[in-house]
Amino acid sequence: MSLDALIDSLPDYAKDLRLNYSSLVRNNTELTKQQLWGTVVASAVATRNAALTAAVVAEAANHLSAMELDAAKAAAAIMGMNNIYYRFHHLSSNEKYSTLPAKLRMNVLRSHGVDHNDFELWSLAVSAINGCGKCVDSHENVVRQKGVTEETIAAVIRVCSVIHAIGPVLEEKAATAA
Predict the structure, then answer these.
(1) Where is the catalytic site (predicted)?
(2) CA distance 141 to 50
(3) Which of 20, 22, 94, 98 could share a disulfide with 162, CB 3.0–4.6 Å?
(4) Can you tell me the distance from the alpha carbon of 38 to that of 18, in angstroms, rounded to the nearest whole number?
(5) Distance, CA of 7 to CA of 83 (rounded, Å)
(6) Which residues contact 14 (CB under 8 A, 6 or more apart)?
(7) Given 36, 40, 74, 132, which residue is catalytic?
(8) Do the Cβ atoms of 79 and 46 come closer than 8 Å?
């Protein structure tokens, strides 16, 4: 199913999600095409919803190069790992964990091949979805130091919040259709 058809098929109780998707993605005026579609891809992957992810990746291929698409997926993948590891640091009262080396490979943070700020914004979106305060602070600080405005960051977070909310609605819809 195409992404537009999937969004248009959301039930009436999720009308706000349809409207927000339309204004934030279909009629985007705040983000570059790469920022927008990378955020949509990374956020969809982070939802773990197969139908949404498949539709988003198919549509994003019309807006991103293969390298940009892979980088957005890579942001979701690496943050899936890092958000768990660093959220544990944040949640544990034992400060020693923060002094130990991570010993996790994170090469993609330097080898993704896209604009550094865009990759950081995608990582920030996934970190927000996954609820890792330590990673949110880190990625927000990096992009702010590199000149990204709070308005751009807020636009990315709005997009990821809507994409994330669509995942559970599609799960409910699939569960009750059977």
Answers:
(1) 132, 135
(2) 32
(3) 20
(4) 19
(5) 28
(6) 165, 166, 169
(7) 132
(8) yes
pTM, entire model: 0.93
Give the phi and the psi of residue 129 in degrees, each rounded to 5: -60, -45
Identify the band that residue 86 occupies on the pLDDT scale cut at 50, 70 and 90.
Answer: confident
Asked if 160 is an active-site residue, the reply is no
Residue reference for tokens 């919040």: 161
Give the distance, in angstroms, between the CA of residue 22 and the centroid of all CA atoms in the same chain.
17
How far from chain centre, in Å, is Cα 106? Answer: 18
The pLDDT tens digits of the residues spanning 16-64 come to: 999 999 999 999 999 999 999 999 999 999 999 999 999 999 999 999 9
* Domain 3-177 class in CATH: mainly alpha
Alpha-carbon span 70 to 42, nearest angstrom = 10
| pLDDT tens-digit series, residues 62-71 | 999 999 999 9
Going from the C-alpha of 5 to that of each of 36, 86, 129, 159, 177, the distances in angstroms are 19, 37, 24, 18, 17
Q: Are 73 and 45 in contact (CB under 8 A)?
A: yes
- Quick one: which H or E segment has residue 82? helix 66-91
For the chain, domain boundaries:
3-177
CA dist 109 and 105 (Å) reads 10
Catalytic residue among 7, 72, 114, 135: 135
